[in-house]
Amino acid sequence: MPDRDVLIIGAGFSGLYQLHKLRELGFDAHVVEAGPQVGGTWYWNRYPGARCDIESIGYSYSFDPELQQEWNWTERYAAQPEILAYLEHVADKLNLRTDISFDTRVVSLDFDDPQDMWTATTESGATITARYVVAATGCLSKPLLPEFPGLDDFAGDVYWTWDWPTDEVDFADKRVAVIGTGSSGIQTITAIAPTVGSLTVFQRTPTYAVPAQNRLIAEELAELKTHYDDFRAESRLSVGGIPCGDELPPFFDDLDDGRIRSELHMRYDDGGLCFQQSFRDLLQNEEANARAAEYVRNRIKDKVHDPAVAEKLTPRSYPIAAKRMCVDTGYYEVYNQPNVTLVDVNEQPIERITEHGIRAGGTDHEFDVIILATGFDAMTGALAAIDIRHGAQTLRDKWSDGPRTYLGLMSAGFPNLFTVTGPQSPSVLSNMVTSIETHVEWISAALSHLREHGLTRIEPDVAAEDNWVNTTNDAADMTLLKQAPSWYMGANVPGKPRAALPFVGGVGTYQQILDGIAVTGYHGFELV
Q: What does pTM read for this prediction?
């Protein structure tokens, strides 16, 4: 007999809720977490300015009415310390820590056919057996570690945004370099620019960023709490897992210029990622996309005083929203400061790290601190880091040409292994907490179904998986996503196969698909 009914890997939003849900249903479930405390992504990513790009009121659990009434978010977009405090509060309120092993990293999983169970081996060599494994490992949890020649030669301090020191770092009067201008880089740059001696930003690809319009939300949160259930229900049926209000009709439906400009202006000034839902077909219609992109480009030009710097910060090589848009709190204005310099590494490639700084384009820049904001091996990286085996087959080998899943929940050939917000589910194209709750609840119901019917094994049919992979790719082909070298497509990792990692059909559509599959007795799965 296995040690546990269910082993859950990860103690972030996914793992905590999965543990609570399974305990509530009477399963013997246990979590292993590589970090020293709960939080997952929100424990590791504590760099300056770290903040969620989904509004706090939606980036929170809906399963406990008492919890959502008692917790008071302070800001529209919560910062990392507040999100971590929230998860710690949840863990304490639900007494979850008693079933979590911290500082425990799983390095391998091996499935035993006769016993229908997994054996997990940890970094220390300890083993745990479980009938089922739920990988709650996160979509952005495996950092990308590019090799810069000479990095070990640098005499100053080097920091990675994904593993920031727990003690406060003093940047006063320091010469600081930041490499990377994705979300982590933008947030770090904005936060430290007022305090550093000088700041040099090394940018490869400019980013479309829209303002957060962050603010204190005590009054609006109190009002929302009077109808929170309606808000949650609307979130579950929305495209992105959080309501964005009425969207414009498709771009080709005779929209006049005045209405187009008015809608873009309203969305931009309201702030946040709902800007990308200005037009229903923003990611399908090139003309609609071009209008929205040009609007943001003009706003960048308005904010940055130096036209040459503004142009370097202006994205022109890919459609808006085809790469992850960023939500900023004054990012572009940073470049008006006299102590901030922008280096375009397309014009001045980074040649090496030197003892005293960075050599780029034949020029030596001297620094006291280098900050690396180089992103993640998204969606598949955390699973690929574990040696997952069933007989002679490994998940790494199976996914060598791109992930293959059924619904982003399971992969054929690997029975009893579930992934929360795995590749080929809406995941990173949505409010992650909405998608997490959808997956946790579906997985929990499936496990209850197996137990009630005396079954011990569930695995996708190959044909069903093939159909879902094709569906995911075909849906992505109908959009502009493939026109951008983004981590949505795995393009940020050298050698990683290009494939559509998320399902682009939207949260509401996906929810209906999952519900239908469960109602029909788990169509596409073999239950034994």
A: 0.95
